[in-house]
Amino acid sequence: MIRVLLADDEAMIRAGVRAILALAPDIEVIAEAADGREAVEAVRAHRPDVALLDIRMPRLDGLGAAEEIARTVPQTAVAMLTTFSEDAYVARALTGGATGFLLKSGDPAELLAGVRAVASGAAFLSPKVARQVIEGYGGERLSRSAAACERTRALSPREREVLALVGAGLSNPEIAAELHLVEGTVKAYVSAVLDRLEVRNRVQAAIVAYEAGLVGSGDS
């Protein structure tokens, strides 16, 4: 079972999200919180697989809670579930340790897919948010692409393969199956890639993969 903590200051929203998650036989909401501070305390107490956080909450907002959870309980994956998709929110969430960013206006199937993805160690962005991330480069796209290519030159061919699959959204077990490796070896490769690229999580690594042209290019 994927054990989920659900944090939102609106009880009706929590009830609706809980009802959607209850449709999945492999997902269980084990705790709820009405503000960010309560969410952090509940994560420390229950150690869920996924913390699903709203952004705007009292005492401590979801972005601050995500950063604290990522720092103090790194084994719990964090996904934001919010009405707001402004670039500043997305950027802070991803740099703060979240590996998922979902919109409340999205399809329920998107919510379930996102929870499963981050629980398995993959990254998941709602399609609208993913477009913002990719298109948000603006006039800096070419320079960012060149910089990303330079960063990935330090990787071995196998590490570049792993990075490309991380960028494609695959989890460690899926990468292991794709490359015919054991999962422990893949985990070691992913850790090495994050270290070499000097990024904090898989979302940031995936962005580098996109910028370097490794995703969908067939480049390995």
UniProtKB/TrEMBL annotation:
Residues 3-119 form the Response regulatory domain. Keywords: DNA-binding, Phosphoprotein, Transcription, Transcription regulation. Pfam families: GerE (PF00196), Response_reg (PF00072). The keyword Ubl conjugation does not apply. The modification 4-aspartylphosphate is found at D54. It comes from the Bacteria. InterPro entries: CheY-like_superfamily (IPR011006), NreC/VraR/RcsB-like_REC (IPR058245), Sig_transdc_resp-reg_C-effctor (IPR016032), Sig_transdc_resp-reg_receiver (IPR001789), Tscrpt_reg_LuxR_C (IPR000792), WalR-like (IPR039420). PROSITE patterns: HTH_LUXR_1 (PS00622), HTH_LUXR_2 (PS50043), RESPONSE_REGULATORY (PS50110). Residues 148-213 form the HTH luxR-type domain. This is Response regulator transcription factor.
